[in-house]
Design brief:
By secondary structure, this protein is of the alpha+beta class. The protein is built from 7 helices and 18 strands.
Length: 299
């Protein structure tokens, strides 16, 4: 006498299925959801989708929108621009409006939205909708490439620029490029006190703006290079009396390291802002800068 096949979905409880499937990466859960209706129900359990990272530009936007519609228990969402960034700069506002509408309608428990190198979802209109409807926090982080991919990875020394030159959002004045102490990973070197300048431009709305932070991956030598940081032409060190004075930055010695500095909102204006690093006129040594990030938080 043949025994009846065992239905594994009746053997294990819903809670146990969730505990087991939590060990699978989300991409594997999506694959599992295509096996059968029963597996689809288990793999798409809202308890498995409280956090989600979407790589925008690499996958079909409609598929990502469909996924978000199922994530009714979503608490934390991260948008990351893929390497195909240049191909999605023309993404329409309508497409992003649809995505935001899905978040508002389906993801009612959303608490944080993190946006990495992707400006469209961070536009004031979309951001305002998300914050007002979900009472969530929106964090927008932009990585600034001081050495674009086209730069040579075998640089002995590019001398200081005699004049100002700039990329899309960064301006350099009397700044050189080298990979002498970090082969294959070029970095900028500031060595002319009072003259070497790097300026980073960024756009922001002050509406619902809670904080602005600049992070620097930098280094100083034994000669102790010193830079000063200004915001929109004003000194950035806030004093106890409410005024502002000279902000002096000394990077980690001997090796690159990340450091973060909060920017007073009193210095931030609606629209284009400029953060400037100047090798101090009294600096005894050089200053090396590899990477820059600017993070804005809206509540």
């Amino acid at each position: 006498m043949e025994s009846e096949p065992v239905n594994i979905f009746h053997v294990l409880s819903e809670e146990l299925w969730v505990k087991i499937l939590k060990y699978l990466p989300q991409m594997e859960l999506l694959k599992l959801s295509t096996v059968s209706k029963a597996f689809h129900a288990q793999a798409m359990d809202p308890a498995l989708w409280k956090s989600l990272e979407l790589l925008l530009g690499q996958y079909n936007l409609l598929a990502q929108q469909a996924l978000l519609q199922r994530c009714t228990g979503l608490l934390h969402l991260k948008f990351v621009a893929s390497s195909m960034w240049n191909g999605i700069e023309g993404m329409t506002k309508n497409a992003m409006a649809t995505l935001v509408s899905i978040l508002i309608e389906k993801c009612k428990h959303l608490r944080t939205v993190e946006i990495i190198n992707y400006p469209f979802i961070g536009q004031p209109y979309f951001r305002r909708q998300l914050i007002n409807s979900s009472n969530c926090t929106v964090t927008q982080t932009t990585d600034y490439r001081l050495n674009p991919p086209g730069d040579s990875l075998e640089i002995v020394w590019i001398p200081d620029s005699p004049d100002t030159y700039n990329t899309k959002d960064i301006e350099f004045h009397q700044v050189g490029t080298t990979d002498h102490y970090r082969k294959g990973k070029p970095y900028k070197i500031m060595r002319n006190p009072g003259s070497s300048i790097i300026s980073i431009n960024f756009n922001t709305s002050v509406e619902r703006l809670s904080s602005v932070t600049i992070s620097l991956n930098h280094c100083r030598t034994t000669s102790d290079g010193v830079v000063c940081l200004t915001v929109n032409g004003r000194p950035a060190e806030q004093r106890e009396n409410g005024g502002f004075g000279k902000m002096v930055i000394m990077a980690p010695r001997f090796n690159f390291g990340w450091e973060s500095f909060d920017v007073s909102l009193d210095l931030i204006q609606d629209g284009i802002n400029k953060i400037t690093l100047l090798l101090d006129s009294t600096s005894p040594g050089v200053y090396w800068l590899s990477d820059v990030k600017i993070q804005k938080v809206f509540r």
